[in-house]
Amino acid sequence: MHESLMELLWSTSHFSGGNLEYVEGLFESYLVDPNSVSEEWRKCFDQLPRVSEAQSTDLPHSVIQQQFLEIGKNKFRSMPVSTGVTTTVGSDHEQKQINVLQLINAYRVRGHQHASIDPLGLLKRDKVADLDLGYHQLTGADLDIAFNSGSLFFNKESMPLSEIVSELEKTYCSSVGYEFMHIVDTQEKAWLQQRVESVRSKPDYSAETRKSLLERLTAAEGLEKYLASRYPGAKRFGLEGGESLIPMVNELIQRSGALGAKEVVIGMAHRGRLNVLVNTLGKNPKDLFDEFEGKKLVNTSGDVKYHQGFSSNVMTAGGEVHIALAFNPSHLEIVSPVVEGSVRARQDRRNDKVGKTVVPISIHGDAAFAGQGVVMETFQMSQTRAYKTGGTVHIVINNQVGFTTNRQEDSRSTEYATDVAKMIQAPILHVNGDDPEAVLFVTQLALDYRYEFGRDVVIDLVCYRRRGHNETDEPSGTQPLMYQIIGKQKTTRTLYAQYLVEQNVLTQQEADAMANENREDLDNGRHVAKSLVLEPKSELFVDWRPYLGVEWTDEGDTSYPIAKLQELAKKTTTVPDGVVVQRQVQKIYQDRDKMTAGAMPINWGYAETLALGTLLEQGYPIRFTGQDSGRGTFSHRHAVIHSQKDGSTFIPLKHLSEDQPPLDLFDSYLSEEAVLAFEYGYATTSPKGMVIWEAQFGDFANGAQVVIDQFITSGEHKWGRLCGLTMLLPHGYEGQGPEHSSARLERFMQLCAEFNIQVCVPTTPSQIYHILRRQAIRPMRRPLIIMSPKSLLRHKQAISTLEELSEGSFKTVLPETSETISPEKVKRLVICSGKVYYDLINRRAELEKDDVAVIRLEQLYPFPYADFEKVLEQYKNVESLVWCQEEPKNQGAWHSNRHRMNRVLEKLYPSLKLRFAGRISSAAPAAGYMSIHVEEQEALVNDAIVG
Question: Per the database record, which ranges form the Transketolase-like pyrimidine-binding domain (predicted)?
Answer without folding.
Answer: 602-795
